[in-house]
Design brief:
Elements lengths: L2 H39 L15 H11 L10 H17 L11 E7 L2 E5 L9 H22 L3 H32 L4 H9 L8 H4 L1 H14 L11 H4 L9 H26 L12 H25 L5 H31 L1
Antiparallel strand pairs: 1-2
């Protein structure tokens, strides 16, 4: 094998490991940030006992999950029960692969054994990025469904069934909403979509301005995909105890918990990339590090709104969510795609 290719593969593997580590670190940080913000929203303090301002609360929670006794009920389907938490987490990590975080590759200013090292600001710059995203995003549902089914518990099974029904409902309007983005940019590749936004109006022609309806639909469906309030129906505590996670504890529960937060973070990156210009901004193309800062700021804003929604809206009833998806979001997304196609036809033809 060519030495340069071997070095590139090694560097790429290191980048993948660092990204996965960063996402898991983001999950840990978000558990504290969300609790602090929810505390402020409801005029409370949030965690403030472990460490300064409660910053070490995540360490306490981690040790609690690591050292908690691992109990496997005798009535579960053992193999499926054990692999389900991993099946929920891995697709959430994989979905980040197509998200570009900067404008251009970074070449190290020194050589390793006489070879140049190039670090790409993406893991996979594929020309079917949106299709990959929709496919991988739906895989995480299988972990939740299998976890609920294998638990052999009626509350867990109901949570799993809700997840599968919810997925069928929101995946359609989410995919159709992205048709407008694809038609305007003419590409399924994430880097092309960001380049389109970066090359107009000095990097401020964000697609949220051209596709506000698609943004709203995608944002709502993203909340459902991440299992965030007010669409956290698979684990409704007041109805299903903990839903699909009722029979889970310790690190197995922690993996399900982590999958939700990693989904939340990845979805925020995707929303920022597709609708808020991604890394685009003043001088971002000439200074790639600035692009990373711009992207992280946009992601932080999206994450804040998700927490704000949780603090402000009550959980919807399951049948009303189904009706809303099929009778409102789906027709609205189809209408948005049709109007976008007609406008583009008038402009260009």
């Amino acid at each position: 094998m060519d030495v340069q290719l071997t070095i590139n593969l090694l560097v790429h593997s290191i980048v993948i490991f660092v990204v996965a580590l960063a996402l898991m670190g983001g999950f840990a940080a978000m558990t504290v940030v969300e609790r602090k913000l929810l505390g402020r929203f409801t005029m409370r303090y949030g965690p403030n006992r472990v460490g300064k301002f409660g910053t070490l609360q995540v360490i306490a929670d981690m040790f609690k999950m690591l050292f908690k006794e691992e109990v496997i009920p005798s009535h579960v389907d053992r193999v499926v029960y054990l692999i389900a938490p991993g099946l929920a987490l891995v697709p959430a990590l994989m979905a980040f692969a197509v998200v570009p975080i900067a404008s251009a590759p970074f070449v190290l200013p020194f050589e390793v054994f006489g070879y140049t090292i190039t670090i790409y600001p993406w893991i996979a710059d594929i020309n079917v990025g949106i299709l990959y995203l929709l496919a991988i995003g739906s895989l995480g549902t299988y972990g939740v469904v299998l976890g609920g089914w294998s638990s052999n518990n009626k509350y867990s099974l109901l949570g799993g069934l809700r997840t599968s029904a919810q997925m069928l409902s929101y995946e359609l309007p989410m995919g159709v909403a992205l048709l407008g983005v694809i038609m305007i940019t003419g590409s399924l590749r994430f880097t092309d979509i960001v380049e389109f936004q970066a090359s107009h109006l000095g990097g401020f022609l964000w697609l949220i301005l051209l596709q506000p309806v698609a943004f709203i639909i995608f944002y709502i469906c993203s909340l459902a995909e991440a299992g965030r309030a007010p669409f956290d129906l698979p684990e409704t505590e007041n109805e299903l105890i903990a839903g699909f996670a009722t029979e889970y504890g310790g690190m197995k529960f922690g993996l399900f918990f982590g999958a939700e937060y990693v989904h939340m973070i990845v979805v925020s990156f995707i929303i920022a990339t597709l609708f808020l210009g991604g890394w685009s901004g003043p001088f971002a193309q000439s200074v790639p590090f600035l692009g990373i800062i711009y992207l992280l700021i946009k992601v932080a804003v999206v994450l804040f709104t998700m927490i704000w929604v949780r603090a402000s809206t009550p959980r919807v009833r399951f049948d009303k969510l189904m009706k809303f998806n099929w009778k409102v979001l789906l027709p609205l997304s189809i209408a948005n795609a049709v109007v976008t196609a007609l406008v583009l036809a008038v402009i260009f033809f």
